[in-house]
Amino acid sequence: MSLRTAVGARRRMVGVAAAAGLVMAVVSACGSGQSSASGGNDVVAAGAPVPLVVYSAQGYDQAMVTAFQKATGIPTKLVDDSTGPLLARVQAERANPQWGVLWVDGDEAFAALDQANMLVKGFQPDAQLNAAGQAVVPKDHSYVPTGLTVTAALVYDSAKTPNPPTSWQDLLAPAWKGAIGMNDPAVSGPTYPFVAGMFDQLGGDSQGQAFYSSLKSNGLHVFQTNGDTLHALQTGQIKVALIQSSAGIAAGIKDKAIKTAYLPKVTSLPSVIGIDAKASAQERAEAEKFATFVLSAQGQKVMLTGDRNGDSLYWPIVQGVSPDPELPALDSVPTQAIDPYVWGPKEGTVNTWFTNTIVH
Amino acid sequence: MTDTTLTPGPVATARPDRGSPPGGLARVGRAVRPQAVATLRLLPWGLFAAVLLLPVAGFLLVAVSPRLFAQGDAWFTLAPFQQVLSGWTAHALLDSLAVGAGAALLATAVAVALAWLTERTTLAGRGLWRLLLWALLLAPSYLESLGWTWLVEPQGVLDRLLGQDPVWLRSAVFGPAGVIWVLASRGVPFAYLAVTALLRGLGREFEDAARTHGGGRLATARVLLPMLAPALWAAFAIVFAESVSDYGVAATLASQGDFPLLTGAMEQSIATFPADFPLASAMGWLLLALVGLALLAQRRSLRGRSYQVLSGRTRPARRTRLGALRQTAALAGVGTFFVLAAGVPAFGAAAASLLPSGGRVSAASLGLANFRHVLRSGEMTSALGYSARLAAITACAAVVLGAVAGRALARQGGGRAGRLLDLLLLAAIALPSVLLASGYIFTYNLPFASSLGIDLYGTTALLVLGYLAGALPSAARLLSGPLGQVSDSLLWAARIHGRRPVAAWAGAVLPLVAGSLVWAWLIAFCGTLLELPVSQLLAPPGQEPLSVAVTRQLQGYDLGAGAAMTVLVVAGALVLIGLVLGALRLFLPAARSLEALT
To answer: Of A174, B150, B446, B462, which sits most exposed with the smallest number of CB within 10 A?
Structure first.
């Protein structure tokens, strides 16, 4: 390389660096301009509201955020998506979290987040919980349950299948060969608690693995999500779908022949709010207000009416609040709660086992 | 090679050395101006670094140094690679390789035949076929997969129509054959664009020369095909990269057929809890290695040759007249392709959007209820407005940057910068967008950047950059063909006749490539409008992109409303395309005769 080209090359490099810097500066100016426009108040005075960022997978979240903002005046921004992408986002952001409130189904993930010190501990909202609610509150109060569904409910078409199975062991009988479908726990958020719940009630990992291996031998179909499994039920590929209760009840509202039954025992699946441990004091205070609002009478009304075709079909855990009339009394459902601090940390290994052994 | 004013090249950097006249203020002004101009010219390269280099590097670093991004304990490890290369993921890697190569070969072959028929023969309905290619380009791959699924599943459409379960067809569709077909048919428009652009510039003279010297049809094809080599290789490379990185098909046909693909495995390692980013990153390295192999093959076969065929002496090609028999055979072939490629997904989307969202299916239950619901609820309009705005911004940026990148790619011996850019663009295609999006989070959400006051993550600006990373590679590839084809002589002629650089480029080069620029804009716009993975991970709080809204409907047990939204958006995009193409015909009729557009 001659001196002249070397100098030229160097000049170009400096130019590239300068241009890159310029681009970054311009783009970040756009970005910060936008965020300060929306949240400019916090600069004015300490204690003034900052935007509360809510990551939520609940069907009624938009209605809740709107009601909360109206009731408190706290500017609230929602990221509404499925549980999988939201948890991926939370984990990718781990070095520098941007969320204030995370609100998805299943306490196992929250237990794991708590053990990684990613959640605010010790917060108790001002609400009177019923017995089912108290059973799912963690000892260190690192997250707040807001309602209950169960998994896996047994969903079937009563016109085609008048006599559905009545126990988990029934599913292994030749009569149900090739007729059972469930979701892949590695893809569908609410399915891991079902898998873990079976492991737990059957006595441990080896018994649980034996159960699912036998199901596989009996022709188990594994689909991606509730929607896919329900579709397989409606098209007759399977006779029995093992999915989240709210999905089954919602299908039953649209098609009266679709029934939902509960084998002894099904695992309770709470919807849960967690607060970012790295949130500013102001945002943390707002997030706590949000959780309290959700459990208030007003918030429960929003939860029960915000998504009548899905997530609103839950059992309330606040005393004196009744579920949607489509739901049976929770007492009549044989539920069990599993310890999320035991099963949460095992989610990765159990899902990997399931993918490697049952799915592939 | 043309030196357009857009690219930093020898002329651009040499200009400051050409000597500036002495004299006070003017001297200072002239000394500053070249500097400013040089910086301005380097601006696109800075953007390439911001859009592609940093996020890709950020994502790839996670595999070897998870601790850097709070994703593990090790500062340096190779364990994720060992994990990928054992068990079913190793199998998925081989499957992806086979599927990518098969789809790329098939798509290139179909595209050459299609391009020849529409460009060089009097095939009937040429406008319709081109419109259908657009429709293919627009439909998301999962839609095509869903269409096939609904057709062949038990109790599916074929089952009910024929009264017999199409078991054999199902086992073909839910497996390698179905996966390769869907990916290839989605790759055909890209391959077609690459091939057509070159074919249009390739005058009739080469064909005539071969025929004059006694060459038969076969001999003529043997003369012409090597001249198309850059387009064939570009088509192969782009379809290969698009296929190995496609997730829509991996999640539907491949997963139901128990035929694991690497993208499915990658997505799963992120979507599951706890997410295993280092493992996904290691798979990203392997996907890149696959694409690197394709790129290497392309480079070796094209090295040291020139493919400039479009010059001032190029004569427009004459179409071969097809006789009745040939016309019928050609129409049957083209028609079959489009029925299998576009008819099936259209059927799937239409069936899903017309059917009620649940309950028994009967003729009476078909209806427009889903469309009415979607249009009345208004939740779609705000999402559509937001996504359309961002898609328009992204498309404009993609065209400008794509032209710069396309020029750099087409430049013979483009130097290290050109090669690096080439690699980066293919990397951006090869990495599934969900991984690219997590790369954006890792890179632009680093705590030290926040402490410097640079908070890009969580803003619309970063979402646009993420979209750009998706749109730029195809734009650059599509534009590199037409831009590389324009001979220097045209520009020099304009310069000799006294035009200034910008005016010379606008007068001599722009009319030749305007159609391609419009194509590239439309593709970027439509591709961004329904983009899902980047939207999911990078959407700023409080804003909902269209694809997220649609997916929420599809997954929230409201398949009908989601499908209706998709149908409305695709139809709206087709109307937009029609308007833009109409405007182009009206205002720039010259572009029409040269471009693969009208």
So the answer is: A174
Shortest alpha-carbon distance between residue B403 and chain A (Å): 18
* pLDDT tier at A179, thresholds 50, 70, 90: very high
pTM of the model: 0.76
Least confident of B29-43, B318-332, B567-581: B29-43
A27: nearest CB among B456, B542, B552: B456
Q: Is A203 left (phi over 0), alpha (psi -120 to 50) or beta?
A: left
Contacts A–B by Cβ distance under 8 A = 214
Radius of gyration, CA atoms only, chain B: 25
Q: Which residues are CB-neighbours of B432 under 8 A, at least 6 positions away?
A: B245, B246, B247, B263, B266, B267, B533
Which secondary-structure segment (H or E) carries A336? strand A335-336
Q: Which of A30, A93, A189 sits opposite B441 (nearest CB)?
A: A93
Domain boundaries, chain B: 84-191+238-354
Q: Give mean pLDDT, residues A201-227.
A: 91
Q: What is the CATH number assigned to the segment(s) B84-191+238-354?
A: 1.10.3720
CB contacts of A229 in chain B (<8 Å) are: none
At residue B72's C-alpha, the angle toward residues B67 and B78, to 5°, is: 85
What pLDDT score does A293 carry?
A: 96
Q: Chain A neighbours among B 19-78 (CB < 8 Å)?
A: 38-39, 41-47, 49-50, 69-71
Whether residue A174 is preceded by a cis peptide bond, meaning omega within 30 degrees of 0, is no
**Please, what is the Cα angle at B569 between B564 and B571, to 5 degrees?**
95
Q: What is the mean pLDDT of residues B66-92?
A: 80
Contacts from A62-69 at CB under 8 Å and sequence distance 24+? A62/A306, A63/A302, A63/A305, A63/A306, A63/A307, A64/A293, A64/A294, A64/A299, A64/A302, A64/A303, A64/A306, A67/A293, A67/A298, A67/A299, A67/A302, A68/A290, A68/A293, A68/A294, A68/A299
How far, in Å, CA of A102 to CA of A91, rounded?
12
**Domains of chain A with bracketed CATH:** 47-149+269-328 (3.40.190.10), 151-267+346-359 (3.40.190.10)
Closest-CA residue of A relative to B50 is A20
Candidate from A78, A225, A359 with C-beta closest to B542? A78
Nearest to A22 among B43, B454, B541 (CB): B43
Contact between chains at A8 and B450 (C-beta distance less than 8 A): no
Q: Do B274 and A112 touch (CB under 8 A)?
A: yes
Mean pLDDT of B541-559: 74
* DSSP structure string for A30-94: HHHHHHHHHHTHHHHSTTS--PEEEEE--TTHHHHHHHHHHHH---EEEEE--HHHHHHHHHHTT
- CB atoms B557 and A310 under 8 Å: yes
Q: Is A109 in Cβ contact with B273 (below 8 Å)?
A: yes
CA B448 to CA B454: how far, in whole Å?
9
pLDDT at B11 over 50: no
| Residue A206 pLDDT grade (very low, low, confident, very high; cuts 50, 70, 90) | very high
| B48, pLDDT greater than 90 | no
pLDDT tens readout for residues B362-386:
444 456 666 777 666 666 778 888 8
Q: A276 - beta bridge partners?
A: A119
**Chain B partners within 8 Å of A187 (Cβ):** 268, 271-272
Residues with Cβ within 8 Å of B24's Cβ and at least 6 positions away in sequence, in order, are none
Q: How confident is the model at residue A235 (pLDDT cuts 50, 70, 90)?
A: confident
Instruction: Write down the pLDDT at residue B14.
Output: 36
pLDDT value of residue B261: 86
CA–CA separation, B309 and B228 (whole Å): 10
